[in-house]
Design goal:
Elements (H helix, E strand, L loop, with lengths): L7 H9 L4 E4 L3 H10 L6 H6 L5 H11 L23 H19 L6 E6 L6 H10 L4 E5 L6 H9 L4 E4 L2 E2 L8 E4 L1 H5 L10 E6 L2 H10 L6 E5 L32 H5 L5 E4 L7 H7 L4 E4 L1 H4 L8 H12 L5 E4 L9 E4 L8 H6 L11 E4 L5 E4 L5 H6 L13 H8 L5 E2 L3 E2 L26 H8 L11 E3 L1
Helix pairs in contact: 1-5, 2-4, 2-5, 5-6, 6-7
């Protein structure tokens, strides 16, 4: 669900209904810093910060970013440091705290379980992010957009208060050259680290091959899978085999991209089906295929409790009711190289003219790639950064074509747009699944908006599914 679309408010609403609410863990340091700069009008963030087990760190975050009453409307946000192999202490603390705050608020007011979702492609802040979520008692860790073999073992070590490390992907690395990103709870805590509950780990996979590899080769226990098809929002797995595009320029998926559920069932681990399952009747279908339930994204993304701005929600729901909502699977938009689903909307970066008019800048850095320089040192580059910078760092100009700064566009989707020179705001880029066209199913009579409870009412209705089913919201 991008950045802060499935935030604590939505996850809390879903968990209160007896299902599994899942918050997005992407770039939460940016989200917390910017919301504090907006003044935290309801006081929820400061309430959560007051419960962080290391008060001096929470006080530093407040000192750095909180603005009583909020920043002036046309003032830019103060930037957070960019993730690095050796990130600044300020960013590490902010990352741990931001994940703690998000999970703590999602768990507030109920005793149901809560999960958090991360992208394997965003490696540098992963361990600090997970540790913050674990300090708040997160129950599930979900991870996709890559092969997260090292995460289960890292969860084991962090739960015991021991250091954990991840191998970091480096473009152009020579044999034996693969540095690690490390997090030591003892160093962070300044002494013995607390013993924490080890959350369950679900790998997000698009094929039986990946599920089998995770189950057999992961560094620790894998507890289940989210089996996600190419109709799901966000990053999609590339089609298997050589990339072929449709006449409209979208990746062409075929029979080889249909997950072999019989092989996944044979692993003996629970799995949930995602991508095209957030519609009436699909839960019953998933259960008949042996799934434990479904993961639902797009319908929740446009409910009242999601983080998307009200204006964008109204626009999308209106288009969906008219049958005019359209989603494009963009093979180029994401700097990760993965296909990325985009809702085609006016005044967003989905419009070619808007995209080309934007002045390229890279100042958040979550999707930067590490690369080996000729002298053997490491550098950072992103195909969505300014062309001259990318080429100066040894990148090929053709790799920049069509790349969009997702790091800046996704926060704009939830009302956290950065202000640029000449008074320009960063434009949003809305990611959503193909179920966008069916949002009208969830609207109560004579209503133009709906809640998370409305989504669950429709999906769990007796006409749509058997009794006592399980769903999962992410």
């Amino acid at each position: 669900m991008g950045v802060a679309v499935s935030g604590w408010l939505l996850a809390r609403a879903v968990s209160r209904q007896g299902q599994l609410g899942v918050v997005s863990g992407t770039a939460l340091a940016v989200v917390l810093a910017r919301r504090l700069q907006l003044g935290d009008p309801d006081g929820e963030l400061r309430h959560a910060l007051a419960q962080f087990p290391f008060p001096a760190m929470a006080a530093r975050v407040l000192s750095d970013y909180f603005i009583p009453g909020g920043k002036p409307a046309r003032a830019p946000f103060k930037l957070t440091p960019m993730p690095a192999l050796q990130s600044r202490r300020e960013l590490v603390e902010l990352t741990v705290i931001a994940n703690f705050v998000e999970v703590l608020l999602a768990r507030k007011g109920h005793h149901a379980r809560v999960g958090i979702n991360y992208l394997e492609k965003i490696q540098l802040p992963t361990l600090a992010s997970i540790y913050g979520a674990m300090l708040a008692g997160v129950d599930y860790i979900l991870m996709g957009a890559g092969i997260p073999r090292a995460i289960p073992g890292a969860l084991d070590r962090l739960a015991r208060g021991q250091p954990a490390s991840l191998l970091i992907d480096i473009e152009g690395a020579l044999p034996g050259e693969q540095p690690t990103s490390s997090f030591d709870p003892r160093q962070f805590c300044g002494g013995p680290a607390p013993q924490l509950n080890r959350p369950l780990f679900f790998g997000i996979v698009a094929s039986a091959t990946l599920a089998i590899a995770l189950a057999r080769k992961a560094s620790g226990r894998v507890d289940g899978f989210i089996v996600e098809g190419p109709t799901a929002g966000g990053h999609n797995a590339p089609p298997r085999g050589p990339l072929q595009l449709t006449s409209e320029g979208e990746p062409r998926y075929g029979p080889r991209d249909v997950p072999e559920l019989d092989k996944i069932r044979a692993l003996g681990l629970p799995f949930w089906l995602a991508g095209g399952y957030g519609r009436p009747g699909k839960l019953a279908e998933a259960l008949s295929l042996g799934a434990a339930g479904i993961q639902v994204g797009t319908p929740f993304a446009f409910c009242d409790e999601s983080g998307i701005t009200p204006e964008l929600k109204r626009q999308v729901i209106a288009l969906s009711r008219l049958g005019q909502a359209r989603v494009f699977t963009d093979p180029l938009a994401s700097p990760t190289g993965f296909p990325f689903k985009v809702a085609l909307l006016p005044n967003t970066l989905s419009q070619a003219g808007r995209y080309h008019a934007r002045v390229r800048i890279c100042d958040l850095g979550y999707l930067r790639h590490l690369y080996r320089k000729p002298d053997g040192t490491l550098g950072y580059r992103c195909p969505a950064e300014p062309l001259e910078h990318y080429c100066h760092k040894g990148g090929a100009a053709e790799e920049t074509l069509g790349r969009k700064c997702i790091c800046n566009a996704l926060p704009a989707t939830v009302g956290l747009s950065q202000l640029r020179p000449a008074g320009r705001d960063e434009l949003p880029l809305l990611t959503t699944g193909d179920d966008l066209v069916l949002l009208a199913h969830f609207l109560p009579p004579d209503r133009d908006a709906y809640t998370a409870a409305d989504v669950l009412r429709v999906l769990l209705s007796p006409a749509a599914s058997p009794a006592n089913p399980k769903t999962q919201a992410a």
